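Q: How do we represent a protein-ligand complex in a form that can be generated token by token?
A: Start from the inputs.
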Amino acid sequence: YRHLLGIEGLSPPEITALLDRAEEAVAVSRQVEKKKAVLRGRTQINLFFEASTRTQSSFEIAGKRLGADVMNMSVSSSSVKKGETLIDTAATLNAMNPDILVVRHHAAGAVHLLAQKVGCSVINAGDGAHEHPTQALLDALTMRRHKGDIGRLTVAICGDILHSRVARSNILLLNALGARVRVVAPSTLLPTGISQMGVEVHTSMADGLKDADIVMMLRLQRERMAGSFIPSVREYFRYWGLDREKLSHARPDALVMHPGPMNRGVEIDPEIADGPQSLIREQVEMGVAVRMAVLEALAAHLPNN
Ligand code: CP
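Then emit the structure tokens for the protein with phosphoric acid mono(formamide)ester bound:
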């Protein structure tokens, strides 16, 4: 494949091959000398129309570890502010002959559209509420390193499913690898048709977390909600925030994940976020490895390779 636009379209062997490649990248990243030459002479542009800490910085580090020249395009100081469209911006960057474009955009489908307009490889770094494929891959890598075969796991994805591209990509990936997937949320934060995605739907944390191996919490995306539908933080935490009592319904060896950024005291109690069952910091480390793996996989399909 020339682009990575979503988990949709990747076969289970392709997902497993990316995870295996990322495992090697973890080892490289823990060495003193971290550089490889896979992307030497190549240009990678990170084009983020939405805020990011983890994804943008890890794509930059990953590209540099593979020897690429990486340019971070600052949208806030670009001509996008003067009304230039996504496609014109992409065509302008494309005229500078990059090899890889990493794109985050607030509109679902925007990255697919852009991929049709440029000559280089495109990686989706999150498009609206649609997909965030490298997040699902790094989550799977983190789970696999701790729990082994993903196909044997029960994973509870909890909270704001409605606005979450992370949930969507995780559901697609976990289903592809045979995991039992539950979504746990108030009915107002569940998308219509979610039960057709091959998940069990639960509207109480006690039921949804029962005997789960992995509890994945999601950020309450208040910026994507209309005024009157924004739940009160105190009430949300009481019913949906992961605290010690709610976590006690999961397996005793259950592990807790969160893609970040976290809202402490909203969807997760700081005691759990920083506690012994939390994998949240490790997810960040796996993020660099997975992005190295994806960049390497695409490098094999770049012209003159
Ligand atoms: N998980 C994630 O995508 O984080 P950022 O928004 O900080 O990139």
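Residues 52-55, 126, 135, 259-261 surround phosphoric acid mono(formamide)ester (CB under 6 Å). The first helix runs from residue 12 to 29.
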